Amino acid sequence: MKKVIISMMVVFAFSLVAYAAANGPATIDLAQKFNVAAPTKKAVQFPHAFHQGKLQCVDCHTTDKGGVLKNQKTGAAFEPTGIKGMKNAVHDEFCWPCHVEKKVPQGKSCNKCHK
Ligand code: HEC
Ligand code: HEC
Ligand code: HEC
Is residue 45 one of the residues assigned to a domain? Predict the structure, then answer.
């Protein structure tokens, strides 16, 4: 009996790990992820797991397994480079359009994301 319980716990632990891997990290440092060269604001710690609880994977990714991101304006693959200044692609084509559309409270307030 004890052995059965232990082996069930092992299986459960492995499936938790597999689940976490498939869903990606719970929080993601986006300054690091997008290679922001000379940050002037605090690096955004993106609450990934929080968004997963509110949205579908394909709202942000091109597939339901994650991977390549989706431009929120065009639906095309979104692979930002050279992020610099206020007028940058991550604001304009990813985070902000959805926050505006979904009426996220203070969705464009600097310290909502840069904290
Ligand atoms: C609100 C937008 C959003 C939603 C919803 C979302 N993700 Fe993500 N996800 C991101 C961002 C932003 C990143 C970090 C950028 C990147 O890794 O390309 C990311 C990264 C990932 C990664 C890591 C990719 C890597 O190469 O490190 C995986 C895996 C992933 N997401 C899976 C999922 C799955 C599965 C779902 C649905 C259950 C989901 N995501 C929902 C925005 C989102
Ligand atoms: C596809 C839609 C979508 C995209 C894209 C998106 N968000 Fe959000 N975001 C939401 C929604 C919906 C909420 C939750 C509103 C609520 O229920 O309070 C939210 C809330 C948040 C919050 C508040 C979390 C909390 O604990 O209350 C932060 C921070 C945030 N988003 C950061 C970002 C950043 C950074 C990006 C871009 C990398 C981003 N979001 C992209 C839809 C999105
Ligand atoms: C919804 C989330 C969100 C909000 C709100 C937001 N930003 Fe950003 N911002 C990002 C993300 C994500 C990046 C790219 C990753 C990073 O730099 O951490 C970024 C990058 C930047 C950059 C370029 C990189 C750097 O650090 O110099 C500047 C400048 C910037 N933001 C300024 C602002 C200002 C000013 C405001 C308020 C008017 C603001 N942001 C509001 C998410 C947001």
Answer: yes
